[in-house]
Amino acid sequence: MNNAVVLPLLIPLLAGVVLVFFSNVRAQRTISALAALLNVAACAYLVQQVRTDGIQTLYMGGWLPPFGIVFVADMLGALLALTSAVVMGACLFYAFRTIGEGRERHHFYALAQFLTVGVIGSFLTGDIFNLFVCFEVMLISSYALIVLGGEKRQLRESIKYILINIVSSILFVASMAYLYAALGTLNMAQLAVRVAETGQGGGLNVVAALLLVVFSLKAGLFLFFWLPGSYGAPPSVVAAMFGGLLTKVGVYAIVRTFTLIFAYDPGFTQPLIEWMSIGAMTLGALGAVAYRDVPRILIYNIVVAVGLIGFGLSAATEAALDGVVFYLLHDMVAKALVFLLGGWLMTLAGTDRSGRMGGLIEKAPALGWMFFATGMAIAGVPPLSGFVGKLLIVQGGLEGGRYIGVAVALATSLLVLLSLTRLFMSAFWGEPKSGEPASVVPSGLLAPCASLLAIVALLGVGAEWVNAYVSLAGEVLARPELYIEAVLKE
Amino acid sequence: MEFIMSILIGALFSVGTYLILSRSLLRIVLGTAILSHGVHLLLMTMAGLKRGAAPLLGEEAGAYTDPLPQALILTSIVISFGVTAFFFVLAYRAYQELRTDDMELLRGDDDE
Protein backbone atom coordinates (compact mmCIF):
# COMPACT_ATOMS: atom_id res chain seq x y z
CA MET A 1 0.00 0.00 0.00
CA ASN A 2 1.41 3.35 -0.99
CA ASN A 3 -0.76 6.41 -1.38
CA ALA A 4 1.84 8.18 -3.51
CA VAL A 5 0.68 6.06 -6.47
CA VAL A 6 -2.48 8.12 -6.82
CA LEU A 7 -0.79 11.55 -6.48
CA PRO A 8 0.01 11.94 -10.21
CA LEU A 9 -3.74 11.60 -10.89
CA LEU A 10 -4.99 13.66 -7.98
CA ILE A 11 -2.86 16.73 -8.67
CA PRO A 12 -4.07 17.35 -12.24
CA LEU A 13 -7.63 16.30 -11.32
CA LEU A 14 -7.86 18.86 -8.51
CA ALA A 15 -6.09 21.49 -10.61
CA GLY A 16 -8.55 20.86 -13.45
CA VAL A 17 -11.55 21.19 -11.17
CA VAL A 18 -10.20 24.42 -9.64
CA LEU A 19 -9.37 25.81 -13.09
CA VAL A 20 -12.99 25.52 -14.22
CA PHE A 21 -13.94 28.20 -11.68
CA PHE A 22 -11.41 30.80 -12.88
CA SER A 23 -12.12 32.97 -15.87
CA ASN A 24 -9.08 35.16 -15.21
CA VAL A 25 -6.43 34.09 -17.70
CA ARG A 26 -3.46 35.03 -15.51
CA ALA A 27 -4.80 32.98 -12.58
CA GLN A 28 -5.44 30.02 -14.90
CA ARG A 29 -1.87 30.12 -16.16
CA THR A 30 -0.41 30.31 -12.65
CA ILE A 31 -2.48 27.39 -11.39
CA SER A 32 -1.77 25.15 -14.34
CA ALA A 33 1.96 25.91 -14.25
CA LEU A 34 2.09 25.11 -10.53
CA ALA A 35 0.10 21.89 -11.04
CA ALA A 36 2.37 20.80 -13.88
CA LEU A 37 5.54 21.35 -11.84
CA LEU A 38 4.07 19.67 -8.77
CA ASN A 39 3.02 16.70 -10.89
CA VAL A 40 6.52 16.27 -12.32
CA ALA A 41 7.86 16.23 -8.76
CA ALA A 42 5.24 13.67 -7.65
CA CYS A 43 6.01 11.38 -10.60
CA ALA A 44 9.77 11.66 -10.03
CA TYR A 45 9.23 10.72 -6.39
CA LEU A 46 7.18 7.71 -7.51
CA VAL A 47 9.89 6.56 -9.94
CA GLN A 48 12.49 6.79 -7.19
CA GLN A 49 10.29 4.78 -4.84
CA VAL A 50 9.77 2.05 -7.43
CA ARG A 51 13.53 1.99 -7.96
CA THR A 52 14.33 1.49 -4.28
CA ASP A 53 11.32 -0.51 -3.01
CA GLY A 54 10.05 -2.40 -6.06
CA ILE A 55 6.57 -2.30 -7.58
CA GLN A 56 4.19 -0.05 -5.64
CA THR A 57 0.47 -0.84 -5.31
CA LEU A 58 -2.53 0.97 -3.92
CA TYR A 59 -5.75 -0.86 -3.07
CA MET A 60 -8.55 1.66 -3.32
CA GLY A 61 -10.63 1.81 -0.13
CA GLY A 62 -8.53 -0.97 1.39
CA TRP A 63 -10.21 -3.68 -0.71
CA LEU A 64 -7.61 -6.31 -1.41
CA PRO A 65 -7.32 -7.64 -4.96
CA PRO A 66 -8.98 -9.31 -6.74
CA PHE A 67 -12.08 -7.68 -5.25
CA GLY A 68 -11.16 -4.00 -5.21
CA ILE A 69 -9.78 -1.51 -7.66
CA VAL A 70 -6.02 -1.58 -7.69
CA PHE A 71 -3.47 0.96 -8.90
CA VAL A 72 -0.04 -0.38 -9.73
CA ALA A 73 3.14 1.57 -10.39
CA ASP A 74 5.76 -0.69 -11.89
CA MET A 75 8.83 0.88 -13.46
CA LEU A 76 7.24 1.09 -16.93
CA GLY A 77 4.10 2.81 -15.69
CA ALA A 78 6.00 5.18 -13.41
CA LEU A 79 8.54 6.17 -16.08
CA LEU A 80 5.79 6.80 -18.63
CA ALA A 81 3.85 8.84 -16.07
CA LEU A 82 6.95 10.94 -15.37
CA THR A 83 7.58 11.48 -19.07
CA SER A 84 3.98 12.48 -19.75
CA ALA A 85 4.06 14.93 -16.83
CA VAL A 86 7.23 16.51 -18.24
CA VAL A 87 5.85 16.66 -21.80
CA MET A 88 2.58 18.11 -20.55
CA GLY A 89 4.43 20.77 -18.57
CA ALA A 90 6.47 21.84 -21.60
CA CYS A 91 3.33 21.93 -23.78
CA LEU A 92 1.56 24.09 -21.20
CA PHE A 93 4.41 26.60 -21.05
CA TYR A 94 4.38 26.70 -24.85
CA ALA A 95 0.59 27.13 -24.83
CA PHE A 96 0.79 30.15 -22.51
CA ARG A 97 2.36 32.04 -25.41
CA THR A 98 0.60 30.61 -28.41
CA ILE A 99 -2.88 29.30 -27.70
CA GLY A 100 -4.69 32.65 -27.80
CA GLU A 101 -7.12 34.28 -25.42
CA GLY A 102 -10.29 32.79 -26.91
CA ARG A 103 -9.24 29.22 -26.21
CA GLU A 104 -7.83 30.17 -22.81
CA ARG A 105 -11.18 31.63 -21.76
CA HIS A 106 -12.96 28.48 -22.86
CA HIS A 107 -11.04 26.32 -20.40
CA PHE A 108 -8.17 25.07 -22.49
CA TYR A 109 -6.02 24.60 -19.39
CA ALA A 110 -8.68 22.70 -17.46
CA LEU A 111 -9.12 20.31 -20.39
CA ALA A 112 -5.36 19.85 -20.63
CA GLN A 113 -5.27 18.87 -16.96
CA PHE A 114 -8.09 16.37 -17.44
CA LEU A 115 -6.20 14.94 -20.39
CA THR A 116 -3.23 14.41 -18.07
CA VAL A 117 -5.48 12.59 -15.59
CA GLY A 118 -6.63 10.18 -18.28
CA VAL A 119 -3.15 9.56 -19.68
CA ILE A 120 -1.40 9.00 -16.36
CA GLY A 121 -4.38 7.01 -15.04
CA SER A 122 -4.06 4.61 -17.97
CA PHE A 123 -0.38 4.10 -17.17
CA LEU A 124 -0.94 3.38 -13.48
CA THR A 125 -4.14 1.34 -13.35
CA GLY A 126 -4.01 -2.37 -12.66
CA ASP A 127 -7.54 -3.21 -13.71
CA ILE A 128 -8.68 -3.50 -17.28
CA PHE A 129 -12.06 -1.85 -16.76
CA ASN A 130 -10.32 1.06 -15.10
CA LEU A 131 -8.12 1.25 -18.16
CA PHE A 132 -11.32 1.75 -20.18
CA VAL A 133 -12.48 4.49 -17.81
CA CYS A 134 -9.14 6.30 -17.96
CA PHE A 135 -9.17 5.96 -21.75
CA GLU A 136 -12.57 7.62 -21.81
CA VAL A 137 -11.45 10.46 -19.51
CA MET A 138 -8.54 11.04 -21.86
CA LEU A 139 -10.66 10.74 -25.01
CA ILE A 140 -13.44 13.04 -23.85
CA SER A 141 -10.87 15.72 -22.98
CA SER A 142 -9.25 15.17 -26.35
CA TYR A 143 -12.63 15.53 -28.14
CA ALA A 144 -13.05 18.89 -26.45
CA LEU A 145 -9.47 19.96 -27.17
CA ILE A 146 -9.62 19.00 -30.84
CA VAL A 147 -12.82 20.97 -31.44
CA LEU A 148 -12.00 23.94 -29.18
CA GLY A 149 -11.96 27.03 -31.35
CA GLY A 150 -14.73 25.79 -33.64
CA GLU A 151 -13.05 26.36 -37.01
CA LYS A 152 -14.67 24.61 -39.95
CA ARG A 153 -11.79 22.20 -40.43
CA GLN A 154 -11.72 21.32 -36.73
CA LEU A 155 -15.45 20.55 -36.70
CA ARG A 156 -15.21 18.39 -39.79
CA GLU A 157 -12.22 16.38 -38.60
CA SER A 158 -13.42 15.96 -35.03
CA ILE A 159 -16.62 14.25 -36.24
CA LYS A 160 -14.50 11.49 -37.74
CA TYR A 161 -12.16 11.37 -34.76
CA ILE A 162 -15.06 10.99 -32.34
CA LEU A 163 -16.83 8.40 -34.46
CA ILE A 164 -13.72 6.22 -34.74
CA ASN A 165 -13.09 6.45 -31.03
CA ILE A 166 -16.69 5.73 -30.04
CA VAL A 167 -16.70 2.62 -32.20
CA SER A 168 -13.39 1.44 -30.76
CA SER A 169 -14.62 2.11 -27.21
CA ILE A 170 -17.71 0.03 -27.95
CA LEU A 171 -15.50 -2.82 -29.14
CA PHE A 172 -13.42 -2.38 -25.97
CA VAL A 173 -16.51 -2.86 -23.77
CA ALA A 174 -17.54 -5.86 -25.86
CA SER A 175 -14.12 -7.48 -25.47
CA MET A 176 -14.31 -6.89 -21.73
CA ALA A 177 -17.70 -8.60 -21.67
CA TYR A 178 -16.18 -11.67 -23.32
CA LEU A 179 -13.15 -11.52 -21.05
CA TYR A 180 -15.30 -11.40 -17.93
CA ALA A 181 -17.49 -14.22 -19.16
CA ALA A 182 -14.47 -16.39 -19.95
CA LEU A 183 -12.28 -15.68 -16.94
CA GLY A 184 -14.51 -14.09 -14.29
CA THR A 185 -12.19 -11.24 -13.40
CA LEU A 186 -10.92 -7.95 -14.81
CA ASN A 187 -7.88 -7.45 -12.59
CA MET A 188 -4.89 -7.64 -14.92
CA ALA A 189 -2.70 -9.69 -12.62
CA GLN A 190 -5.48 -12.17 -11.90
CA LEU A 191 -6.37 -12.33 -15.59
CA ALA A 192 -2.77 -13.32 -16.26
CA VAL A 193 -2.96 -16.06 -13.63
CA ARG A 194 -6.24 -17.41 -15.02
CA VAL A 195 -5.02 -17.38 -18.62
CA ALA A 196 -1.96 -19.33 -17.51
CA GLU A 197 -4.19 -21.85 -15.72
CA THR A 198 -6.74 -22.43 -18.49
CA GLY A 199 -4.33 -22.01 -21.41
CA GLN A 200 -4.82 -19.47 -24.16
CA GLY A 201 -7.13 -21.34 -26.51
CA GLY A 202 -9.23 -20.24 -29.45
CA GLY A 203 -11.79 -18.23 -27.49
CA LEU A 204 -9.20 -16.18 -25.66
CA ASN A 205 -7.32 -15.61 -28.89
CA VAL A 206 -10.45 -13.98 -30.30
CA VAL A 207 -10.58 -11.65 -27.30
CA ALA A 208 -6.87 -10.94 -27.71
CA ALA A 209 -7.36 -10.06 -31.37
CA LEU A 210 -10.34 -7.84 -30.49
CA LEU A 211 -8.28 -6.00 -27.88
CA LEU A 212 -5.44 -5.66 -30.37
CA VAL A 213 -7.84 -4.01 -32.84
CA VAL A 214 -9.13 -1.65 -30.15
CA PHE A 215 -5.70 -0.60 -28.92
CA SER A 216 -4.28 -0.34 -32.44
CA LEU A 217 -7.08 2.04 -33.35
CA LYS A 218 -6.09 4.25 -30.42
CA ALA A 219 -2.37 3.85 -31.00
CA GLY A 220 -2.37 4.29 -34.78
CA LEU A 221 -0.70 0.91 -35.26
CA PHE A 222 -1.64 -0.01 -38.84
CA LEU A 223 -5.27 1.20 -38.39
CA PHE A 224 -4.11 4.82 -38.52
CA PHE A 225 -6.18 6.16 -41.41
CA TRP A 226 -8.06 8.59 -39.18
CA LEU A 227 -4.88 10.01 -37.72
CA PRO A 228 -3.47 12.48 -40.28
CA GLY A 229 -6.70 14.43 -40.65
CA SER A 230 -7.62 14.74 -37.01
CA TYR A 231 -4.15 15.54 -35.68
CA GLY A 232 -3.69 18.18 -38.36
CA ALA A 233 -6.84 20.14 -37.45
CA PRO A 234 -6.16 21.61 -33.95
CA PRO A 235 -3.36 24.11 -33.11
CA SER A 236 0.13 22.64 -33.07
CA VAL A 237 0.44 22.60 -29.29
CA VAL A 238 -2.66 20.36 -29.07
CA ALA A 239 -1.21 18.19 -31.83
CA ALA A 240 1.97 17.98 -29.76
CA MET A 241 0.02 16.73 -26.73
CA PHE A 242 -1.83 14.22 -28.90
CA GLY A 243 1.22 13.04 -30.82
CA GLY A 244 3.34 12.82 -27.70
CA LEU A 245 0.83 11.26 -25.33
CA LEU A 246 -2.41 9.85 -26.81
CA THR A 247 -1.01 7.36 -29.29
CA LYS A 248 1.54 6.25 -26.72
CA VAL A 249 -1.25 5.31 -24.30
CA GLY A 250 -2.58 2.92 -26.92
CA VAL A 251 0.92 1.53 -27.42
CA TYR A 252 1.31 1.11 -23.67
CA ALA A 253 -1.98 -0.80 -23.52
CA ILE A 254 -0.78 -3.16 -26.27
CA VAL A 255 2.53 -3.68 -24.49
CA ARG A 256 0.86 -4.31 -21.15
CA THR A 257 -1.84 -6.72 -22.32
CA PHE A 258 0.39 -8.71 -24.65
CA THR A 259 3.29 -9.13 -22.25
CA LEU A 260 1.18 -9.79 -19.16
CA ILE A 261 -2.17 -11.33 -20.06
CA PHE A 262 -2.00 -12.82 -23.55
CA ALA A 263 1.60 -13.96 -23.44
CA TYR A 264 0.88 -17.67 -23.60
CA ASP A 265 0.22 -18.22 -27.29
CA PRO A 266 3.00 -16.28 -29.02
CA GLY A 267 2.48 -18.27 -32.21
CA PHE A 268 -0.81 -16.45 -32.72
CA THR A 269 -0.25 -12.94 -31.33
CA GLN A 270 3.34 -12.22 -32.31
CA PRO A 271 3.03 -12.61 -36.11
CA LEU A 272 -0.17 -10.52 -35.94
CA ILE A 273 1.60 -7.64 -34.17
CA GLU A 274 4.73 -8.08 -36.28
CA TRP A 275 2.94 -7.75 -39.62
CA MET A 276 0.79 -4.88 -38.42
CA SER A 277 3.97 -3.09 -37.31
CA ILE A 278 5.72 -3.72 -40.58
CA GLY A 279 2.69 -2.32 -42.40
CA ALA A 280 2.60 0.72 -40.14
CA MET A 281 6.31 1.42 -40.60
CA THR A 282 6.13 1.08 -44.39
CA LEU A 283 2.97 3.12 -44.95
CA GLY A 284 3.98 5.72 -42.37
CA ALA A 285 7.38 6.24 -43.95
CA LEU A 286 5.86 6.49 -47.43
CA GLY A 287 3.39 9.08 -46.13
CA ALA A 288 6.17 11.06 -44.49
CA VAL A 289 8.12 11.19 -47.73
CA ALA A 290 5.11 11.78 -49.97
CA TYR A 291 3.66 14.93 -48.42
CA ARG A 292 5.04 18.44 -48.57
CA ASP A 293 3.20 20.16 -45.74
CA VAL A 294 4.66 20.32 -42.25
CA PRO A 295 1.81 18.80 -40.18
CA ARG A 296 1.43 15.71 -42.37
CA ILE A 297 5.16 14.99 -42.50
CA LEU A 298 5.29 15.07 -38.72
CA ILE A 299 2.07 13.06 -38.27
CA TYR A 300 3.22 10.23 -40.52
CA ASN A 301 6.40 10.10 -38.46
CA ILE A 302 4.25 9.17 -35.44
CA VAL A 303 2.96 6.15 -37.35
CA VAL A 304 6.51 4.99 -38.13
CA ALA A 305 7.50 5.22 -34.47
CA VAL A 306 4.42 3.30 -33.32
CA GLY A 307 5.24 0.62 -35.88
CA LEU A 308 8.80 0.36 -34.62
CA ILE A 309 7.66 -0.05 -31.03
CA GLY A 310 5.16 -2.71 -32.12
CA PHE A 311 7.92 -4.57 -33.91
CA GLY A 312 10.08 -4.49 -30.78
CA LEU A 313 7.17 -5.91 -28.81
CA SER A 314 6.63 -8.75 -31.27
CA ALA A 315 10.33 -9.67 -31.14
CA ALA A 316 9.87 -10.09 -27.37
CA THR A 317 13.45 -10.83 -26.35
CA GLU A 318 14.81 -9.10 -23.28
CA ALA A 319 16.85 -6.64 -25.36
CA ALA A 320 13.86 -5.82 -27.56
CA LEU A 321 11.62 -5.15 -24.55
CA ASP A 322 14.24 -2.83 -23.03
CA GLY A 323 14.34 -1.15 -26.42
CA VAL A 324 10.55 -0.82 -26.46
CA VAL A 325 10.60 1.00 -23.12
CA PHE A 326 13.51 3.20 -24.12
CA TYR A 327 12.03 4.09 -27.49
CA LEU A 328 8.63 4.80 -25.93
CA LEU A 329 10.21 7.29 -23.52
CA HIS A 330 12.27 8.88 -26.30
CA ASP A 331 9.36 9.10 -28.67
CA MET A 332 7.01 10.81 -26.23
CA VAL A 333 9.51 13.63 -25.69
CA ALA A 334 10.82 13.85 -29.25
CA LYS A 335 7.41 13.80 -30.97
CA ALA A 336 5.99 16.47 -28.68
CA LEU A 337 9.12 18.55 -29.30
CA VAL A 338 9.00 18.20 -33.07
CA PHE A 339 5.35 19.29 -33.14
CA LEU A 340 6.12 22.31 -30.96
CA LEU A 341 9.02 23.27 -33.25
CA GLY A 342 6.82 22.65 -36.29
CA GLY A 343 4.18 25.00 -34.90
CA TRP A 344 6.85 27.63 -34.30
CA LEU A 345 8.13 27.14 -37.84
CA MET A 346 4.67 27.49 -39.38
CA THR A 347 3.98 30.68 -37.43
CA LEU A 348 7.33 32.10 -38.51
CA ALA A 349 6.86 31.24 -42.17
CA GLY A 350 3.16 32.08 -42.26
CA THR A 351 2.43 28.89 -44.21
CA ASP A 352 2.44 25.13 -43.69
CA ARG A 353 3.84 24.29 -47.15
CA SER A 354 7.51 23.44 -47.05
CA GLY A 355 7.82 24.61 -50.67
CA ARG A 356 6.89 28.17 -49.78
CA MET A 357 9.45 28.44 -46.98
CA GLY A 358 13.12 29.22 -47.34
CA GLY A 359 16.13 30.88 -45.76
CA LEU A 360 14.63 30.95 -42.30
CA ILE A 361 17.98 30.10 -40.67
CA GLU A 362 18.82 33.83 -40.87
CA LYS A 363 15.69 34.80 -38.95
CA ALA A 364 15.63 32.03 -36.38
CA PRO A 365 18.93 30.17 -36.03
CA ALA A 366 17.96 28.65 -32.67
CA LEU A 367 14.77 27.16 -34.11
CA GLY A 368 16.65 25.83 -37.12
CA TRP A 369 19.33 23.99 -35.20
CA MET A 370 16.89 22.67 -32.63
CA PHE A 371 14.73 21.31 -35.46
CA PHE A 372 17.80 19.72 -37.03
CA ALA A 373 18.85 18.08 -33.76
CA THR A 374 15.33 16.78 -33.13
CA GLY A 375 15.15 15.33 -36.63
CA MET A 376 18.44 13.54 -36.03
CA ALA A 377 17.15 12.20 -32.71
CA ILE A 378 13.95 10.87 -34.31
CA ALA A 379 15.87 9.23 -37.13
CA GLY A 380 18.11 7.58 -34.53
CA VAL A 381 21.49 9.22 -35.06
CA PRO A 382 23.83 8.79 -32.09
CA PRO A 383 24.40 10.24 -29.53
CA LEU A 384 20.79 11.44 -29.33
CA SER A 385 18.00 9.52 -27.68
CA GLY A 386 16.44 7.61 -30.59
CA PHE A 387 19.61 5.64 -31.23
CA VAL A 388 19.71 3.49 -28.10
CA GLY A 389 16.11 2.32 -28.31
CA LYS A 390 16.37 1.58 -32.01
CA LEU A 391 19.62 -0.30 -31.52
CA LEU A 392 18.10 -2.49 -28.80
CA ILE A 393 14.99 -3.21 -30.89
CA VAL A 394 17.10 -4.13 -33.93
CA GLN A 395 19.32 -6.31 -31.75
CA GLY A 396 16.25 -8.07 -30.36
CA GLY A 397 14.85 -8.56 -33.86
CA LEU A 398 18.11 -10.10 -35.06
CA GLU A 399 18.26 -12.42 -32.03
CA GLY A 400 14.74 -13.61 -32.87
CA GLY A 401 15.59 -14.07 -36.55
CA ARG A 402 13.03 -11.52 -37.72
CA TYR A 403 15.09 -10.23 -40.61
CA ILE A 404 12.26 -8.74 -42.69
CA GLY A 405 11.13 -6.58 -39.80
CA VAL A 406 14.69 -5.45 -39.07
CA ALA A 407 15.24 -4.58 -42.72
CA VAL A 408 11.99 -2.59 -42.83
CA ALA A 409 12.87 -0.82 -39.57
CA LEU A 410 16.27 0.24 -40.89
CA ALA A 411 14.95 1.25 -44.31
CA THR A 412 12.15 3.33 -42.82
CA SER A 413 14.69 5.03 -40.53
CA LEU A 414 16.39 6.27 -43.65
CA LEU A 415 13.08 7.50 -45.10
CA VAL A 416 12.32 9.29 -41.82
CA LEU A 417 15.74 10.92 -41.96
CA LEU A 418 15.07 11.89 -45.57
CA SER A 419 11.67 13.42 -44.82
CA LEU A 420 12.93 15.49 -41.88
CA THR A 421 16.19 16.69 -43.46
CA ARG A 422 14.32 17.63 -46.62
CA LEU A 423 11.90 19.66 -44.56
CA PHE A 424 14.84 21.23 -42.71
CA MET A 425 16.67 22.09 -45.93
CA SER A 426 13.72 23.57 -47.76
CA ALA A 427 12.59 25.60 -44.77
CA PHE A 428 15.86 26.87 -43.38
CA TRP A 429 18.31 26.95 -46.29
CA GLY A 430 18.18 28.57 -49.69
CA GLU A 431 16.78 31.93 -50.64
CA PRO A 432 14.11 33.55 -48.47
CA LYS A 433 10.77 33.28 -50.25
CA SER A 434 8.76 36.46 -50.48
CA GLY A 435 5.41 34.82 -49.87
CA GLU A 436 2.91 35.94 -47.28
CA PRO A 437 4.44 38.22 -44.65
CA ALA A 438 5.54 36.23 -41.64
CA SER A 439 3.27 36.48 -38.64
CA VAL A 440 4.66 37.80 -35.38
CA VAL A 441 6.15 34.93 -33.42
CA PRO A 442 5.41 35.17 -29.70
CA SER A 443 8.49 35.30 -27.50
CA GLY A 444 9.24 32.72 -24.84
CA LEU A 445 8.93 29.63 -27.03
CA LEU A 446 12.60 28.83 -26.67
CA ALA A 447 12.53 27.71 -23.03
CA PRO A 448 9.96 24.85 -23.28
CA CYS A 449 11.45 23.58 -26.55
CA ALA A 450 15.03 23.80 -25.29
CA SER A 451 14.20 21.94 -22.10
CA LEU A 452 12.60 19.10 -24.07
CA LEU A 453 15.64 19.03 -26.36
CA ALA A 454 17.87 18.84 -23.29
CA ILE A 455 15.91 15.75 -22.18
CA VAL A 456 16.30 14.21 -25.63
CA ALA A 457 20.06 14.78 -25.46
CA LEU A 458 20.20 13.52 -21.87
CA LEU A 459 18.35 10.32 -22.77
CA GLY A 460 20.98 9.70 -25.44
CA VAL A 461 24.18 10.81 -23.71
CA GLY A 462 23.15 9.49 -20.31
CA ALA A 463 21.87 6.21 -21.73
CA GLU A 464 23.93 4.23 -19.25
CA TRP A 465 22.27 6.04 -16.35
CA VAL A 466 18.77 5.87 -17.85
CA ASN A 467 19.30 2.20 -18.61
CA ALA A 468 19.36 1.41 -14.89
CA TYR A 469 15.70 2.45 -14.80
CA VAL A 470 14.72 1.13 -18.22
CA SER A 471 16.12 -2.35 -17.59
CA LEU A 472 14.00 -2.56 -14.43
CA ALA A 473 10.94 -1.81 -16.58
CA GLY A 474 12.02 -4.28 -19.27
CA GLU A 475 12.57 -6.97 -16.64
CA VAL A 476 8.93 -6.74 -15.51
CA LEU A 477 7.79 -7.01 -19.14
CA ALA A 478 9.98 -10.05 -19.77
CA ARG A 479 8.99 -11.73 -16.48
CA PRO A 480 5.31 -10.96 -15.83
CA GLU A 481 5.34 -13.09 -12.67
CA LEU A 482 7.07 -10.18 -10.92
CA TYR A 483 4.04 -7.99 -11.64
CA ILE A 484 1.57 -10.70 -10.62
CA GLU A 485 3.37 -11.37 -7.32
CA ALA A 486 3.53 -7.69 -6.46
CA VAL A 487 -0.18 -7.17 -7.02
CA LEU A 488 -1.60 -10.37 -5.56
CA LYS A 489 0.87 -10.93 -2.70
CA GLU A 490 -1.18 -9.71 0.28
CA MET B 1 -33.37 -15.82 -21.19
CA GLU B 2 -29.75 -15.42 -22.33
CA PHE B 3 -30.78 -16.83 -25.70
CA ILE B 4 -33.46 -14.18 -26.30
CA MET B 5 -31.09 -11.49 -25.08
CA SER B 6 -28.37 -12.54 -27.50
CA ILE B 7 -30.81 -12.28 -30.41
CA LEU B 8 -31.79 -8.81 -29.21
CA ILE B 9 -28.12 -7.82 -28.91
CA GLY B 10 -27.47 -9.07 -32.43
CA ALA B 11 -30.39 -7.04 -33.72
CA LEU B 12 -29.16 -3.91 -31.94
CA PHE B 13 -25.65 -4.38 -33.32
CA SER B 14 -26.88 -4.78 -36.87
CA VAL B 15 -29.20 -1.77 -36.64
CA GLY B 16 -26.40 0.29 -35.11
CA THR B 17 -23.91 -0.73 -37.78
CA TYR B 18 -26.44 -0.02 -40.53
CA LEU B 19 -27.10 3.46 -39.17
CA ILE B 20 -23.37 4.26 -38.76
CA LEU B 21 -22.76 3.36 -42.38
CA SER B 22 -25.36 5.84 -43.65
CA ARG B 23 -24.56 9.29 -44.97
CA SER B 24 -26.60 11.45 -42.66
CA LEU B 25 -24.78 12.65 -39.56
CA LEU B 26 -27.86 12.42 -37.35
CA ARG B 27 -28.33 8.76 -38.23
CA ILE B 28 -24.68 8.11 -37.41
CA VAL B 29 -25.07 9.62 -33.95
CA LEU B 30 -28.18 7.52 -33.34
CA GLY B 31 -26.27 4.49 -34.63
CA THR B 32 -23.52 4.94 -32.05
CA ALA B 33 -26.13 5.30 -29.32
CA ILE B 34 -27.85 2.06 -30.35
CA LEU B 35 -24.55 0.26 -30.73
CA SER B 36 -23.48 1.23 -27.23
CA HIS B 37 -26.88 0.12 -25.92
CA GLY B 38 -26.27 -3.25 -27.52
CA VAL B 39 -22.84 -3.57 -26.01
CA HIS B 40 -24.17 -2.78 -22.52
CA LEU B 41 -26.73 -5.56 -22.85
CA LEU B 42 -23.90 -7.81 -24.05
CA LEU B 43 -21.87 -7.04 -20.93
CA MET B 44 -24.91 -7.85 -18.79
CA THR B 45 -25.73 -11.07 -20.61
CA MET B 46 -22.22 -12.46 -20.86
CA ALA B 47 -21.85 -12.36 -17.09
CA GLY B 48 -25.07 -14.32 -16.59
CA LEU B 49 -28.49 -12.82 -15.94
CA LYS B 50 -29.98 -12.50 -12.46
CA ARG B 51 -30.15 -15.87 -10.71
CA GLY B 52 -30.09 -15.19 -6.98
CA ALA B 53 -30.64 -12.71 -4.21
CA ALA B 54 -29.04 -9.31 -3.92
CA PRO B 55 -25.46 -9.67 -2.67
CA LEU B 56 -26.14 -8.44 0.88
CA LEU B 57 -25.05 -9.94 4.20
CA GLY B 58 -27.85 -11.63 6.11
CA GLU B 59 -29.82 -12.45 3.00
CA GLU B 60 -29.15 -16.17 3.56
CA ALA B 61 -30.02 -17.06 -0.01
CA GLY B 62 -28.82 -20.14 -1.82
CA ALA B 63 -27.33 -18.11 -4.66
CA TYR B 64 -26.28 -14.52 -5.06
CA THR B 65 -26.21 -12.35 -8.15
CA ASP B 66 -22.82 -11.10 -9.26
CA PRO B 67 -22.99 -7.30 -8.73
CA LEU B 68 -19.86 -6.46 -10.71
CA PRO B 69 -21.32 -6.47 -14.26
CA GLN B 70 -24.03 -4.07 -13.10
CA ALA B 71 -21.44 -1.71 -11.68
CA LEU B 72 -19.47 -1.92 -14.91
CA ILE B 73 -22.57 -1.22 -16.99
CA LEU B 74 -23.47 1.75 -14.84
CA THR B 75 -20.05 3.31 -15.49
CA SER B 76 -20.21 2.49 -19.16
CA ILE B 77 -23.73 3.91 -19.55
CA VAL B 78 -22.75 7.19 -17.91
CA ILE B 79 -19.76 7.51 -20.22
CA SER B 80 -21.76 6.73 -23.35
CA PHE B 81 -24.50 9.22 -22.35
CA GLY B 82 -21.89 11.93 -22.01
CA VAL B 83 -20.22 11.09 -25.28
CA THR B 84 -23.53 10.87 -27.16
CA ALA B 85 -24.62 14.24 -25.80
CA PHE B 86 -21.32 15.75 -26.89
CA PHE B 87 -21.62 14.13 -30.30
CA PHE B 88 -25.13 15.55 -30.80
CA VAL B 89 -23.97 19.06 -29.94
CA LEU B 90 -20.98 18.66 -32.22
CA ALA B 91 -23.18 17.45 -35.06
CA TYR B 92 -25.46 20.46 -34.60
CA ARG B 93 -22.53 22.90 -34.50
CA ALA B 94 -20.97 21.26 -37.55
CA TYR B 95 -24.27 21.59 -39.39
CA GLN B 96 -24.43 25.28 -38.48
CA GLU B 97 -20.88 25.98 -39.67
CA LEU B 98 -20.60 23.68 -42.66
CA ARG B 99 -24.25 23.84 -43.85
CA THR B 100 -24.40 20.12 -44.50
CA ASP B 101 -24.91 16.86 -42.63
CA ASP B 102 -23.88 14.62 -45.52
CA MET B 103 -20.74 12.64 -44.73
CA GLU B 104 -19.88 12.42 -48.43
CA LEU B 105 -19.52 16.19 -48.52
CA LEU B 106 -17.48 16.24 -45.31
CA ARG B 107 -14.69 14.17 -46.82
CA GLY B 108 -11.25 15.22 -47.97
CA ASP B 109 -9.14 18.27 -47.29
CA ASP B 110 -9.42 21.94 -47.97
CA ASP B 111 -6.56 21.85 -50.45
CA GLU B 112 -7.14 18.71 -52.46
Automatic annotation (TrEMBL), chain A:
InterPro entries: CPA3_Na-H_Antiporter_D (IPR050586), NADH_UbQ_OxRdtase (IPR003918), ND/Mrp_TM (IPR001750). It is found in: Cell membrane; Membrane. GO terms for biological process: ATP synthesis coupled electron transport. Residues 127-414 form the NADH:quinone oxidoreductase/Mrp antiporter transmembrane domain. GO terms for cellular component: plasma membrane. Keywords: Antiport, Cell membrane, Membrane, Transmembrane, Transmembrane helix, Transport. The chain crosses the membrane at residues 6-23, 30-47, 67-96, 108-124, 130-149, 161-183, 203-225, 237-255, 275-291, 298-317, 323-345, 366-384, 404-424, 445-463. It is a multi-pass membrane protein. GO terms for molecular function: antiporter activity; NADH dehydrogenase (ubiquinone) activity. The keyword Nucleus does not apply. The keyword Nucleotide-binding does not apply. Its main location: membrane. It comes from the Bacteria. Belongs to the CPA3 antiporters (TC 2.A.63) subunit D family. PANTHER family: NA(+)_H(+) ANTIPORTER SUBUNIT D1 (PTHR42703:SF1), NADH DEHYDROGENASE (PTHR42703). This is Na+/H+ antiporter subunit D. It comes from Paenibacillus antri.
UniProtKB/TrEMBL annotation, chain B:
The chain crosses the membrane at residues 6-21, 28-49, 69-92. It comes from the Bacteria. It is found in: Cell membrane. Pfam families: Oxidored_q2. Its main location: membrane. GO terms for cellular component: plasma membrane. InterPro entries: CPA3_antiporter_subunitC, NUOK/Mnh_C1-like. Keywords: Cell membrane, Membrane, Transmembrane, Transmembrane helix. It is a multi-pass membrane protein. PANTHER family: ANTIPORTER SUBUNIT MNHC2-RELATED (PTHR34583). Belongs to the CPA3 antiporters (TC 2.A.63) subunit C family. This is Na(+)/H(+) antiporter subunit C.
